[in-house]
Amino acid sequence: MKQRERGSGRVPPGAQLAERDHKAEIVDRLYDVALDPIRLEELLEVWEGRIGPLRVGTLERAVPLEDPEIEAHTARATVFLDRFEATREDGAYRSVLEDIPRSAAFLSDGGSRIVAANRAARLAFAVDEGAPLADLPFDPDDIATLRDVILKVAGGWAEKVITLRIRSLVTGGPVIVRVSPVESDRTAPLALILSTELVWPEGFEQIVREAFGLTMAEVEIVQAITLGLPLKDIAEARGRSVETVRTQLRSILSKTETHSQSELVRVVLGLMDVALIPAVAADGRRGDGALEPVPFREMRLGDGRRLEWIEFGAPDGVPVLFMHMDYGLIRWPVPAERAAVAQGLRVIVPVRAGYGRTDPHPRGAERLTACSRDYAAVLDHLGLSRVAVICMGADLRFALKLSQMRPGLVSGIVGCAAQLPLRTAAQYDRMDKWQRFILANARYAPRVLPFMVKAGFSLARRLGKEAFFTQVNGGSPADMQAFAQPEVREAILLGSDVCMTRKWSAHEAFTAECIDSERDWSDLVRAAAVPVVLLQGDQDPQTPMLTIRELMGDFPALDVTFLPGTGQLLFFAEWQTALDRLRPLLPGRN
Question: 121, exposed or middle or buried, with CB in 10 Å at 0-12, 13-18, 19+?
Fold first, then answer.
C-alpha cells in the first residue's frame, strides 16, 4: 500500500493501489460494467481481490481508499453507465415478454446470443438472457433455420410473421414457434420468438385443486395433460398402468364438467389466463397476488417536500411504526398483514426520502437526523403520541435516533436481523460477498460506491428483481428458503417497488443509506432509553452470528435472541415471533 504526503501535517493519508497492473485490472472492469452491467460480479471479484487486503485492523484506524486515478475512471465509467441506462428499452421490447406468462418466449436479433427471455423460456428451454442461441433444445439444423428466419423477420426482409414446426430434443414432440418483429431502438433489429411450449405457473396447482375439487394426484395428471404428455408417458412417470390413469382422467373430466382431453386443456388454459392477470393497486401501482392493494398517502412537510406512507392492519388499532430498510420492503406477507388486523395493530410505514414518491432531502442533509425527523412528522400528522417500532437491518439507528430525539414517542423497539455498528475489518470480511461489496465500500471507498450501486440497480432491472435477489442472497440457505415461500416473495417483490422498478431506481437514496449506516453510531445504542429486543439469524449473510456475539459485550442493554434457520429475511420468515416479542412493548403495555 502506498501512502500520499499531505503537506507537513499528520493527517492520515488515504490508501492507494501500489501495483499498476492491479489498478489497470480494476479500471478495465469498471468500463466493462459501464457498458454491460451483467458483468458486475466480475468487477466484484477483482475489486475484492485487490482492495480487500487494504482493510485491516480496527475501524478507528481505517484508511479509506483515496486513489484519484480510480476515482477519475469511476466518474467516466458512470457517464457510460448513464448512457447505457438512457438507451435501455425495457419499457418497450423487454416489456413484451412480461405479457407472455405461460408460453416460452424470447427475443433475438439473429445473433449468437439470446437478448431476453421470459420465465417460461427459462424453465422450458433452460435459457436466459445472454445464453447462446445454440443452447436451445433443438436440433442444430433447426436452430440454423430458426436463426435465418429471425434475421429475415427482424430485418424486414420477409413476411411480418413466420411460423416454424421444429422438434424438441427434451420431449421429442413438435414445437411450433411464431417469429414476429419487435420495435426497438437497438442497432440490430429484434424479433419475438413465441413457442407452444407451456410452463405450469408457480402455485397454479392449488388454484386448479380449489377450482374443481381435485385431489393432488388428479391435479398432477391435469398438469401433465396440459403440458402435452400422452397418457402412456404419464402412466410410466407415475408408475401406474395406462388403464389406472384413464380411470383417473374420467374422474377429472366429470369434476371439471368437460368431455375430452382437448376441452379439459382449453378450460385449464382459460383458468390459467385468469389466474395470471395482475391486480392493480388502488393508486395505479401493481398488486401481484393475494396482498390487498394499499393506497399511498402523502403529506407536505414544512420545507415543501412530499412524504409518502402506507398503512395496513386495524385502522383504529395500536400504532406500530415499521421501517422498510434500504431495500424499501414496505409490505408484509399476507398472513402477517392479516395477523396485524386480528391482533389490533395499526401498521404505519413511511417511505423514506428518495424512495417511491417521497422527495429527497436537500443536498448535504445529515441522513440519520433528517429521516428521523420525517418519521416524527408522519406520526405528528396522524396525531400519534406513542408507538412501538419494528425495524430491520441498520434501520435500528433510525429507531434509536427517533426515540432519543423525541423522548416518550417510542415505547419499544424490535429489531429483526439488525445491523450493529461494526468495529473491525474482520467483521466486514465475514459478510457474504455481495453484502461485503456494498457495505465495505460504503466504509472504505465511499467515493466509488455510487457507481457500484448504480451498476447493481441496473443489473437488477436487467435480470429482474427475483433473479437478482437470488443471485445476491444465494449465500444464505435460510433466506433462499424464505424467499421460496410465495407469500414472502410477493411481499418482497411488491414492497420493494418503492426502491426499484424497471423504469426507475432509488440508487441515490440507497447509496446514501449505506454510507450513513457505516458511520459509527455506537453512542446511539449505548444511550438507548427504551427496551430494545433484537432477533438475529444464524445464517445472516450481512451480520453473521459471530459478529453479533462480538458486539453484544459493547451493548449489554440489548435483549438479543438468535433464531435458528433464519437470515436477513428473518422478519418475513418469523413475523409471528417478532409480533410476539413486540406485544409487551406496545403503547400502554409497558
Answer: buried
| CB count in 10 Å sphere of residue 362 | 10
> Per residue in 411-457, pLDDT tens?
999 999 999 999 898 999 999 999 999 998 888 888 888 999 988 88
**What is the CA angle 464-337-512, rounded to 5?**
50
Strands 410-416 and 387-392: parallel
Contact 559, 532 (CB under 8 A): yes
Cell of 27: 479500471
Strands in 345-350's sheet, in edge-to-edge order, are 297-300, 306-313, 345-350, 318-322, 387-392, 410-416, 532-537, 559-563
3-class secondary-structure state, position 572: helix
Whole-prediction pTM: 0.66
The gap from C-alpha 547 to its chain's centroid, in whole angstroms, comes to 25
Q: Are 63 and 13 in contact (CB under 8 A)?
A: yes
Half-sphere exposure of 422 (CA within 13 A, CB side): 33
DSSP string, 269-328: HHHHHHHTSPEE-TTS-EE-SSSPP---EEEE-TTS-EEEEEEEE-TTSEEEEE--TTTT
* Per-residue pLDDT tens digits for 551-570: 998 999 999 999 999 999 99
Q: Tell me phi and psi for residue 118, to 5 degrees.
A: -90, 175
Cα dist from 535 to 349, 428, 493, 563, 571, whole Å: 20, 20, 23, 7, 9
CA distance 321 to 517: 20
Residue-level length of the chain: 590
Answer yes or no: are the C-beta atoms of 300 and 465 closer than 8 Å: no
Helices (H) and strands (E) in the chain, counts: 25, 17
Is residue 33 within 8 Å of 81, Cβ to Cβ? yes
Rounded to whole angstroms, the Cα distance separating 522 from 428 reads: 17
The grid coordinates of residue 124 equal 422450458
User: Which of these, 82, 65, 78, 70, lies nearest to 25 by C-alpha position?
Assistant: 70
Residue whose C-alpha cell is 401493481: 286
d(CA 64, CA 513): 18
DSSP string, 428-495: HHTS-HHHHHHHHHHHH-TTTHHHHHHHHHHHHHHH-HHHHHHHHHTT-HHHHHHHTSHHHHHHHHHH
Helix 465-473 × helix 433-444 angle, to 10°: 80
Output the CA–CA distances (angstroms, integers) from residue 460 to 45, 309, 426, in the order listed: 18, 25, 28
What would the pLDDT profile of 483-514 be if each residue is shown by its tens digit?
999 999 999 999 999 998 876 789 999 999 99
Q: Are 537 and 561 in contact (CB under 8 A)?
A: no
Task: Look at 35-49, 94-108, 167-181, 355-369 and tell me which has the smallest mean pLDDT.
Answer: 94-108
Which residues does residue 300 pair with via DSSP β-bridges, in sequence order?
A: 306
